[in-house]
Design brief:
EC 5.1.3.2, UDP-glucose 4-epimerase, Epimerase_deHydtase, Rossmann fold, UDP-galactose 4-epimerase, domain 1, two-stranded parallel ribbon, globular, about 40% helix, NAD
Length: about 325
């Protein structure tokens, strides 16, 4: 059985491709390489270069490879930048998802695992987010992910589409030494680049209501995340019932200062981070609960913080 992985040449998608293969599912990658890297696609895995806005290409790919399900990871993922590029964000994430679902319906592909985001919650009023926490996205990116979930829901009612959406916060680490996070906006690559350039990383505010005064956030290892995508795909194949959405969260979180300490230890570059002013809108703590995903999707935190940082650093150095 073949599973199409949209965005399968990207940082998260490439790990999902490997997790599917490890579970005996046959991945096929569709990626426009706008942020993905073709070398991230494993040898022997079919690769189709193209955009989700091309419905004919998607339909032909589904038919040519006998695709029975889709893991939809592709999308424009830069929440902050989406505020300046709302129309582009909606085109890529909403129109693209609708085009994908239309092609799936036309080819009788009736199961999908959707890479959603904790951005659907916005800034929650509680510091432990559950699947029932109110949805209040604060960026076009977060809104587009919530609309994506609605599209799956409505298509499920209309056509019987079997689906689940996986929501997560900060994805870090690497499952293989050559798969790295190339995002220009994420914390880990930004800190690594600063250290490689000889600059001192900065912490924005150290007077929050947390044990060490710095913000606490949810960081999860990309390989752990990929495992749960593959488990969800297998369960949809088996006709098992899944929740419409799951949080892939640590339940605990780590502080920015703890991240910086682990960075110094993993890289061997001693530094004391600069302390800058708070950024507007940064809450003290946001952490997601992962109980439902632990019950249904073999979700667990298999890596320590130091392992997350060390694996990410090793992979980043492979790009030099």
């Amino acid at each position: 059985m073949s599973w199409l992985v949209t965005g399968g040449a990207g940082y998260i998608g490439s790990h999902v491709v490997r997790a599917l293969a490890a579970e005996g599912l046959e991945p096929v990658v569709l990626d426009d390489l706008s942020s993905g890297i073709e070398a991230f696609v494993p040898e022997g895995v079919p690769f189709v270069r193209g955009t989700l806005l091309d419905g004919d290409l998607i339909a032909n790919t589904l038919e040519a490879h006998g695709v029975t399900g889709v893991v939809h990871v592709a999308g424009y993922k830069y929440a902050g930048v989406s505020v300046q590029r709302p129309l582009h964000t909606y085109e890529q994430n909403v129109t693209g998802t609708a085009t994908l679902l239309e092609a799936m319906a036309g080819r009788g592909v009736d199961r999908i695992v959707f890479s959603s985001s904790a951005a659907v919650y916005g800034t929650p009023s509680t510091d432990l987010v559950t699947e029932d926490t109110a949805k209040s996205p604060e960026s076009p990116y977060g809104e587009s992910k919530l609309i994506g979930e609605w599209l799956l829901r409505d298509q499920g009612v209309a056509t019987g589409l079997r689906h689940t959406s996986l929501r997560y916060f900060n994805v870090v680490g690497s499952g293989e030494p050559n798969l790295y996070d190339a995002s220009p906006h994420n914390l880990f690559p930004l800190v690594f680049q600063a250290l490689l350039d000889g600059r001192t990383p900065k912490i924005f505010g150290d007077d929050y209501g947390t044990p060490d005064g710095t913000c606490v956030r949810d960081y999860v290892h990309v390989a752990d995340l990929a495992v749960s995508h593959a488990v969800a795909a297998k369960k949809l194949d088996a006709g098992e019932r899944l929740e419409t959405a799951y949080n892939l969260g640590s339940g605990a979180g780590v502080s920015v200062r703890q991240i910086m300490d682990a960075m110094a230890e993993a890289t061997g570059i001693a530094f004391t981070p600069e302390i800058g002013p708070r950024r507007p809108g940064d809450p003290d703590r946001i952490v997601a609960e992962g109980v439902l995903a632990g019950r249904d999707l073999d979700w667990k935190m298999r890596h320590t913080l130091l392992e997350m940082v060390s694996s990410a650093w090793e992979a980043r150095r492979s790009a030099e």
